[in-house]
Amino acid sequence: MSISIIVAIAKNYAIGLENKLLYWLPNDLKRFKSLTTGHTIIMGRKTFESLPKGALPNRRNIVLTRQDINFPGAERYGSLEEALAQCQEEEEVFVIGGASVYQEALPLADTLYITQIEDTPKEADAYFPAIDPSLWKETGREVHPTDEKHLYPYCFTDYQRKK
After folding, report:
1. Which fold has domain 2-161?
2. Is 122:17 a contact under the CB 8 Å cutoff?
3. pLDDT tens readout for residues 34-44
4. CB under 8 Å to 135, separation ≥6 — which residues?
5. Domain segments of the chain: what residues?
6. Which end of the chain is more exposed for a tag (fewer CB within 10 A), N or C?
C-alpha cells in the first residue's frame, strides 16, 4: 500500500487555526480533489468536523477517533494502525490531517504532496512536522504567483521518501 500525505503549509509549517485552514487557494482545493478522488482519505475527528458538507464525495472517508461517535458517510477507527489494516494492498491512501495525524503518519508515508504558501501567518495553532531533507527527495515543483483568486504566491511540491 502507498501512503501519501497531502497538506498546505505556510513558511513556518503552520496549517491551521481554530480547526480552520489558514488559506483559501482555489487551485490547491482543485489539486486536492483531483489527487484524492477515487482513493481512501484518512483524517482525525476535528478535520472531519471542519469539512463544510461532511464526508467528501467519491472517496472512502476514514475518521480516526477513540470516541464512540457516528460519522455519516465515513468509517471510524480508533487508530491509524487499525485504519491502515482495513485498506487494500494496492491502494493509495491519503492522510489529510490534522496535525497529530500528520505527525503519526509521516514516518509511514511514501509520498508528500505539499502546497507551500509564501506567507507566515500572524496566528496558528496547528503545524506540520518539519520535512527532513535527508529522508525526502523533491520530485516535482510547480510555482504559482499571486493572481485575482490567490492572495499569496505558492508552489505545489511533491516529495518521495528516499530509499
Report:
1. Dihydrofolate Reductase, subunit A (3.40.430)
2. no
3. 999 999 999 99
4. 161, 162
5. 2-161
6. C
